[in-house]
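Need tokens for this chain, all 202 residues.
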Amino acid sequence: MKVICITNRHLANEDYYIRIEQILKASPTALLLREKDLPEAEYGELAGTVLRMCAAYGVPCILHTFADTALRLGADALHLPMPLLRQLGEKDKSRFRFLGASAHSVEEAEEAQSLGCAYITASHIYETDCKKGLAPRGLLFLREVCQAVQIPVYALGGVRLSNAAACIQAGASGVCIMSECMRRPDLSAVLQAYKETGGWNC
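Here are the structure tokens for all 202 residues:
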């Protein structure tokens, strides 16, 4: 049951590392350490700690944005916005076991696949506070992306228990959650509920 938890320290209601540990105890498919507003040096310090935490719990850790930092830390997974993915050289690509990208159109999804991505996130599917004022792309967009590529697609943006199954039925391999994973006190129960939601195809 594929659920990627995306971090956002601004949403945490408690000590950030305590929340990270709670996420890891809930056993998501992976933790995507986003925090893209941090300068690279600060992100690197944070990433080093979180990578060790993830290893201790056996949860894959996907770093974000900073390829040089990810390589320096020996990370095997990296998620990039499309402009940064286009700039990443073939030699550096080959050093990551899992490379992912954010796609906001069918064309971007196809490009990400051609550039060697192992998965993509498609967003934003539903209304979300992270994209205030921007209309969601919806399930038809998600279905079109899933049909256009052969790599796993994760639905992102406004995903909740009430609509996660619809994303899977549209062809997604899994979903990404941010607000719930950073705020819910009952996170283990929440993730278990996601896993038990009807419509999973994995």
